[in-house]
Amino acid sequence: MDKVKITDIAKQSKVSPTTVSRYFNHPELLSQETQTKIEDAIQKLNYKQDHLARILVTGESNLVGVIFPHLHLSFYTELLNQLIKYAKEKGYHLIVYTSNNSKSEELQLIQNLLSYRVKGLILLSHLLSPQEIEELPVPVITIERTGGNYKQINNDNFTGGKLAAELLIQNDCDVFIHINNDYQENWPSFKRILGFEFGIKDRCYERIVENNFTDPYTSKAESTMQKVVQNLLTKYPNKKIGVFCSNDDIANLFERECIKQDFDVPNMVKLIGYDNSPVSNYAVYPITSIDQNISLMAQVAIQSLDNYIPCETIVPAILVKKNTTL
């Protein structure tokens, strides 16, 4: 069977070859009606696009590399869903890796991606220094990581932490707790802690950092949270406790352990997470959370591939009240 050509698709769909080419390269420039006509023609002709030929001819591809540190957290999985959605609209195909928090592995993955002549890279780990990222030969977009001379997309973390503090104060909490798995002072997410601590000022406060919460779905995380909740029950009897967690997954783990130990959520324990990821909605008591607007982060990341300008975009933090702060 002869190989299907662009001109064959144009004839079948009754549009020009230029329009078909635009469909493959910039589908967002075409109406939905035109896209549907071309898609129908592609299906009828059983056309398969030769991505390798495109790379050889143009020296470019519609491939985009994405590297996550891991996919344990709902923030990462929901961000991946949104990146796929917006990439599809732009005609991009994602190659997704996890570096497992290994710098050497991340560097090797980047070399693999560069061999595909990717259009750009989207990075979410804190493993590479700004200088190492700046030296990469393709546009780089980072999300929630230390800045440099490249495109950065970060949440307004300070405001997010401050909003959490203000709501817990409004809920008449006596004791304020922040639970985190890890932080460094140059990470954008550290500003959540600063905003929270600024908001509560001189009130009774404790910061709890446990690395076992990095993957909140392990037995180690569960046993560690059991001890944390037991300690809070012992240390602050008959006190209303306001808890702000660094992400929704840790907040969900905390809530489950409170229920097991008859720690009264949401009456004696007020709980706020961060991200407003799906897990916050599906908890036993839907968890109040700071919305990072994950969809907007993904949209900005994909759009930046076409109009790449090294700068920082700050995405607003929005408080979403749910059952744990009633």
UniProtKB/TrEMBL annotation:
It comes from the Bacteria. One of its GO terms (molecular function) is DNA-binding transcription factor activity. Signal peptide: none annotated. InterPro entries: HTH_LacI (IPR000843), LacI/GalR-like_sensor (IPR046335), Lambda_DNA-bd_dom_sf (IPR010982), Peripla_BP/Lac1_sug-bd_dom (IPR001761), Peripla_BP_I (IPR028082). Pfam families: LacI, Peripla_BP_1, Peripla_BP_3. Keywords: DNA-binding, Repressor, Transcription, Transcription regulation. Residues 4-58 form the HTH lacI-type domain. This is Catabolite control protein A.
